[in-house]
């Protein structure tokens, strides 16, 4: 995108609006195209949404969000000749999702849920001051290493200090994608205000109330 910006600037149009008209990844393909799979498609498009929504922009256009169109909404069985071309959709023709990147709302209720009648309930015991109200972001048990590595790449390119999970860091061991992703996803979640959305990560993260700190690796 910076290449387009530089080119337009040289032509005398530095303020032209840049739009990403088409970008995507196939969820299936011909046997030799091993990159065309659901995990890669979910990682790419999920990461794309996070990048666009972050407002980070590019080195030459910092702090900007760009109008971006994912290719495509539906799989198209009449496209070809390669199988890849048929499988760029987020949805199948029957409207079921090929994979989930968090664009569907779980609740479609059009009116607020009624409040239950006010019935006094026993006051819960307060947790210890050190953990009262504290929450952490951790990977879901079924999150794949491919998706978690995508989360790591995204987090480390968006201002989060990833040195604790590097060799010699307090959270390098255990040296697994899941362990590193867990620490970094929580760091991102805490740094961005501890909103549930900041722990979504294309539905690979979940908010926990139990401190996942382990040994020298202390979660904030």
Descriptive keywords:
220 residues, alpha+beta, 4 helices, globular
Helical/strand content category: alpha+beta
Instruction: Give the uncertain stretches in residue-range form.
Output: 106-121, 123-130
Number of DSSP-assigned strands: 4
Backbone CA Rg: 21 Å
What is the rounded distance between the termini? Answer: 35 Å
Largest sheet: spatial strand order = 1-2
Largest sheet: 2 strands, parallel
Structural overview:
The protein has four helices and four strands; from the N terminus they run αβαββααβ. With 220 residues, the chain is of the alpha+beta class. The protein has helices at residues 2-10, 38-54, 145-156, 177-191, and strands spanning 20-23, 68-70, 136-139, 205-208.
Task: Produce a short descriptive summary.
With 220 residues, this protein is of the alpha+beta class. Helices cover 24% and strands 7% of the residues.
Write the layout of secondary structure elements.
Blueprint lengths: L1 H9 L9 E4 L14 H17 L13 E3 L65 E4 L5 H12 L20 H15 L13 E4 L12
Parallel strand pairs: 1-2
Antiparallel strand pairs: 3-4
């Amino acid at each position: 995108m910076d290449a387009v910006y530089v080119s337009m600037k040289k032509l005398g149009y530095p303020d032209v609006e840049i739009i990403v008209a088409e970008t995507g990844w196939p969820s299936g393909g011909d046997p030799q195209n091993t990159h065309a799979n659901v995990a890669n498609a979910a990682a790419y498009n999920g990461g794309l949404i996070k990048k666009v929504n972050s407002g980070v922009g590019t080195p030459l256009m910092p702090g900007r969000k760009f109008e971006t169109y994912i290719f495509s909404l539906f799989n198209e069985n009449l496209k070809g000749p390669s199988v890849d071309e048929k499988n760029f959709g987020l949805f199948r023709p029957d409207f079921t999702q090929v994979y989930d990147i968090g664009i569907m709302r779980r609740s479609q209720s059009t009116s607020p849920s009624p409040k239950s009648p006010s019935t006094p309930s026993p006051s819960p015991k307060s947790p210890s001051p050190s953990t009262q109200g504290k929450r952490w972001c951790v990977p879901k048990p079924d999150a794949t290493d491919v998706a978690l590595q995508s989360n790591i790449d995204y987090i480390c390119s968006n201002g989060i200090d990833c040195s604790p999970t590097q060799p010699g860091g307090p959270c390098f061991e255990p040296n697994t994608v899941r362990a590193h992703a867990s620490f970094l996803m929580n760091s991102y979640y805490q740094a961005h205000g501890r909103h549930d959305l900041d722990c979504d990560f294309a539905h690979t993260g979940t908010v926990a109330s139990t401190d996942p700190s382990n040994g020298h690796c202390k979660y904030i």
